[in-house]
Amino acid sequence: MSTQSFPVTGAGLGYRRALMDEIAEQQPQQIGFMELAPENWIGIGGQMKRRLREMTERYPFVCHGLSLSIGSPSPLDEQLVRSIKNFMAEHDIRCYTEHLSYCSDNGHLYDLLPIPFTEEAVHYVAARIRRVQDILGERIGMENVSYYADASADTPGALSEIDFINAVIAEADCGLHLDVNNIYVNSINHRYDPVEFLKALPGERVMYVHIAGHYEEAEDLRVDTHGADVIDPVWQLLDTAYDTFGVMPTLLERDFNIPPLETLLLEVEQITEAQKRWGMRHDRAVV
Question: Which domain holds residue 26?
Fold first, then answer.
C-alpha cells in the first residue's frame, strides 16, 4: 500500500471553459480537485480571471501543462516556467505536471511527439526537468504519454518505453503523473502487456492519476482523444493501479465531445467508488 503524501486527494475533473457555468452554479461536492492547463489562463484578466479565482478559492487545483516541450531540441522556455511559477503562487496551485514528450522546434508543432528512447535522451531530458524544478522550487510530475510511432525503433541500443520512463524519473528526481489510459492505448498500439508495464512503474513517485476515454480507430489502433467515456478495460487497469500502489488521487480527463456536467459526474463518482473499495481492501489487509 502506498504511504506517500499527495498534493490533492479524491476524484478530480478537468476545468474546461465549456463547464464553467455549470460548475459555478452547482458547486458539485463529488469533485475533490480540479486541473487546468496554465497556458490557457496565464495573462487572462477581467471577468474570466475573477471567475477562475472564485474556483481556485473553492477547490484545490493542479496544473497540467501543454507546451513545456521537455524533449525539444530548442532551448527550454524559462520565461514560461517563471510565468507558471507566478500563476501557481497567485492561485495556490498544488502541483505542476507535464508530458514526457515534445511539441516545439523553432515554433509550436501543435502535437505531443515522442522522444527517442535512448540513453542520450534520458540525460538531456532529465537535465531540463531538473532546471524546471530549480526555477519552480519544487518537484514536478512527468506524464507517461501515448505515442503512435517509436522514434528510436532503428536506433542501436535503444531502451524500451518503460526503461526510458523509469530512467528519466530517477535521474531527474521528479514525480510521475500516471495516465492509465495512455498505458492501455500504447499496449494495443505497440503490443505489450499493460498490467506488466503498470507494475514496473515507480508507484512511490506518483503525484496523481489520469483516466480518460479514447477512440478505437481499428482493432490494433487506439487514438488518445479524451473525447469518449472510459471503457471497462481502462477502469480495470485503474483497479490494478490501486491494488498495486494503493489508492491515489485520480482525475477524469474530458477535452472533446463534452457532455453535461451531470454525466461527467457519474464517471467522477465511479472513481470515488473505486477509491473507497480499494481503500477498504487495503485497510483490511493491514489489520
Answer: 11-286
Nearest to 81 by CA among 167, 122, 140, 124: 140
Number of domains in the chain: 1
Predicted confidence (pLDDT) per residue in 220-259, tens digit: 888 889 889 999 999 999 999 999 999 999 999 999 899 9
Residue 261 or 283, more confident = 261
* Residue 211: inside a domain: yes
CATH code, 247: 3.20.20.150
261 domain residue, yes or no: yes
The rounded Cα 76 to chain-centroid distance in angstroms is: 20
In a domain, 214, yes or no: yes
What pLDDT, on a 0 to 100 scale, did the predictor assign at position 2? 46
Rounded Cα–Cα distance for residues 250 and 271 (Å): 7
The fraction of the chain above a pLDDT of 70, given in percent, is 95
Q: Which of 64, 112, 110 is CA-nearest to residue 87?
A: 64
Structure pTM? Answer: 0.94
The gap between the terminal CA atoms of the chain, to the nearest Å, is: 13
